[in-house]
Amino acid sequence: MLSIAQNQALFALLGTLYGGNGTTTFQLPDLRGAAPNGLSYVMCVQGLFPMRD
């Protein structure tokens, strides 16, 4: 659950597609079951990943 006020750009992309009330909160998708062969998905909400030099 994330705050819309602190993550406006991300909310503009996702909206309430994955949950939240749409006025103060929204949620990110749970991708844990979608990763093949023990890999994992990561959604960065701040900064750059992986770090760039």
How many DSSP-defined strands? Answer: 2
What's the story with the biggest beta sheet?
A: 2 strands, antiparallel
Silhouette: flat
Global mean pLDDT? 83
**Tally of contiguous helical segments:** 1
Please characterize this protein's 3D structure.
This protein has a two-stranded antiparallel sheet. The longest helix has 7 residues, at 8-14. With 53 residues, the chain is mostly loops. It is 13% helix and 8% strand. It contains 1 helix and 2 strands, in the order E-H-E. 2% of the residues are buried. It has a domain at 2-28. The chain is flat, with a radius of gyration of 13 Å. It has one helix at residues 8-14; strands spanning 2-3, 25-26.
Descriptive keywords:
single chain, 53 residues, little secondary structure, two-stranded antiparallel ribbon, 1 helix, flat
Brief synopsis:
The chain is low in regular secondary structure and 53 residues long.
Write the SSE topology.
Blueprint: E1 2-3, H1 8-14, E2 25-26
Antiparallel strand pairs: 1-2
